[in-house]
Amino acid sequence: MMTTIQASFSKERKFIADASHELLTPLAALQYRFDNMLSDESLSDENLLRVVESQRTVHRLRTIIKSLLMISKIENDQFPRTETVSLAQLVAEVSEEVQDRLAVLNLTLTQEVQPDFVVQGANRGLLFTLLFNLVGNAIKYNREGGQIMLLGRPEAPAGYVLEVRDTGRGISKEQLPRLFHRFDKGSTTDPDSYGLGLSIARTIADLHGIRIEVNSIEGLGTSFLLFFPG
Ligand SMILES: Nc1ncnc2c1ncn2[C@@H]1O[C@H](COP(=O)(O)OP(=O)(O)OP(=O)(O)O)[C@@H](O)[C@H]1O
Ligand SMILES: [Mg+2]
Predict the structure, then answer these.
(1) Cα 183 off chain centre by
(2) Which ligand sits closest to the CA of 212?
(3) How far apart are CA 144 and CA 148, in angstroms?
């Protein structure tokens, strides 16, 4: 039998899922309307700019809502976990996916996942998102000419650790305790930072029984450790 607390949690989850889903439809309509306005040749440059700005806002809203929807879908156990995933392969795929973004800050990315580790009973897409979000942060909060290291090693007595290490700006002691909270952005002011990437990462890790540990020194860099059970 469900306890009252469990019941109210699942009610809240269902509400978030339903509300997010409902919001996506009118937003798609709004986006469509803005797209159409852009093809209006009588539009002044000033108004054109306003429409483009509005399109960006709609895009941001959709990204936030999709992320919330994703979190609630994971929490509601709507993703099957039936795949076996090689971490060496996953690291290689994520590295490949971010190659273009390394050039902006002149970053070097190295991968050393040896020996490999195979995760059983996993959802490959979700594990990709988990690693992609961590590597995305390692890129975004790095410094010019910095490094990113993706390192895998067995963990005694059983299990495995995958580390995402960067030489970026680091995370303050004040921010660390709320790092995985939804919408926490620390001192980040970038309008395209939503403070949701780590919250998604944590939800995916919980689903797979992966423990996350963070070590960071301000001004020097950050290391995220993923502990996979053996
Ligand atoms: N590797 C890192 N180095 C320094 N700061 C970090 C790092 N990873 C996360 N942070 C801090 O934690 C905050 C939350 O990260 P999170 O990934 O959840 O959101 P975000 O990057 O701001 O936006 P998004 O939702 O687009 O990922 C960031 O805004 C940043 O302040
Ligand atoms: Mg992020």
Answers:
(1) 12
(2) 1
(3) 12
d(CA 3, ligand 1 centre) in Å: 35
Q: Within the chain, which residue ranges are assigned CATH 1.10.287.130?
A: 4-75
User: Could you tell me what percent of the chain has a pLDDT over 90?
Assistant: 86
For the segment(s) 4-75, the CATH number from 1.10.3720.10, 3.90.180.10, 1.10.287.130, 3.40.630.10 is 1.10.287.130
- pLDDT per position as a tens digit, 6-59: 787 778 888 888 888 899 999 999 999 999 999 999 999 999 999 999 999 999
Pocket of ligand 1 (CB under 6 A): 133, 137-138, 141, 166, 168-171, 179, 184-186, 188, 193-199, 222
**Buried b vs exposed e over 146-166: b needs ≥16 C-beta within 10 Å?**
bbbbbbbeeeeeeebbbbbbb
- For residue range 63-91, what is the model confidence (pLDDT) as tens digits? 999 999 999 999 989 999 999 999 999 99
Asked if the 83-228 domain carries CATH number 3.30.565.10, the reply is: yes
Crossing angle of the two packed helices 124-140 and 197-208, in degrees rounded to 10: 140
Q: How far is the CA of 37 from the centre of ligand 2 (A)?
A: 32
